[in-house]
Amino acid sequence: MPASSRPHRHSARNPGSQTALRELNQQRIADTLLASGPSTQAELARQTGLSTATISNIVRIMSDAGIVETEPTTSSGRRALLVRLCNRSAVAVGIDFGRRHLRIAIATLGYDVVAEENIELPVGHRAEEGIETASNLLTKMLADNAIAHSSVLGVGVGIPGPIDRRAGRVVQGAILPEWVGIDLVELEDGLRFPVVFDNDANLGALAEVTWGPHSEIDNLVFVKVGSGIGAGLILNGRPFYGGLGITGEIGHDTITDNGVVCHCGNRGCLETVASTSVMLDLLSRSGVSRVGQIVSRAQAGDSATLRVLDDAGLAIGRALASVANLINPEVVVVGGPLAELGDLFLSSIERGLMRHAVPSVGESTRLVMSSLGERAEALGAAALVLQHQAVRHF
């Protein structure tokens, strides 16, 4: 998100003075790093509108003051200097609630992950139980890593279901029906920290353009394939939420008119033919009961597993073709617990996409697996906290 699109604090000094201008430029750079994560000097120039010479000078001043740290890197095949905020006295927490799991990541202002935990949750757990488990785990993680509660800027929460942003409430259609009706106040009361929350696929998309390798992509679709299937959208460099905040619900695209009834109430939704829950049901006779077994059997060349993945991939590709035809993204990133399968799963999704997309759109859409794996949503939740920060901690 470009720093120039957010308000900045102005110095109390004469706004025309060199000192005031330098402080304003420092704030602009810090805002950009807080929102976008570590960036090269060239990326900072593009995002802030400042010249590369100004960026270089200001970064040097901020580095000497201990506000940022730099390290050599490569960008587009050229040597570059990566810049990150280096204050470690404040942290952001990202929590990803799934149907069967809970993941928590704790990150610094400089987007360094200092702690991360992933545990299983019972299927069908009540929201109150999940929140209490998360609160207890977070308390333990903070203690284990000697992080004071006062150092926590806030907690970002990812939930697998639609969220009405007007009411700040989980609404019907969530893969966790036990969470329908949960709102921001209940999350804050249960976690005992300031909370921002979003749909998990939206957070996956945010993670890809902050933690992932797609920071320079303005139009990106992140599709999470798990117990549910949803898409997060980055359009023109910003997360897209539509009118209510309920976007990217491709898991409820109708694939077969006379299919089985989905939990949303419709028939033949994508989730009823291509979610990991459906894959597990189809492979249960073969003794498959966990997603990890789908991955291992596919990698071992099991024909039944590969057939189930191929059918699911074709259906997902068909749904993504409709999205691609509508918004023409530069990149589609596939995430979730099957991401480590790589081309074993991606190839069938690509065939479905190419079969149903307008040829020029399909050919220009780059389809990749997430490099963040199952961490994406928790990392995106931590990034959401950092982007919402108005108080400066450096």
From TrEMBL:
- Looking at the record, the residues that make up the HTH marR-type domain are 28-79
- Please name the PROSITE patterns in this protein's record: ROK (PS01125)
InterPro entries from the UniProt entry = ArsR-like_HTH, ATPase_NBD, HTH_MarR-typ, ROK, ROK_cs, WH-like_DNA-bd_sf, WH_DNA-bd_sf
Q: Which GO terms describe its molecular function?
A: DNA-binding transcription factor activity
**What Pfam families does the record tag this protein with?**
MarR_2, ROK
* Highest taxon above the source species: Bacteria
Coiled-coil ranges per UniProt: none
Tell me the protein family, please: Belongs to the ROK (NagC/XylR) family.
Q: What's this protein's name?
A: ROK family transcriptional regulator
Organism (species): Lacisediminihabitans changchengi
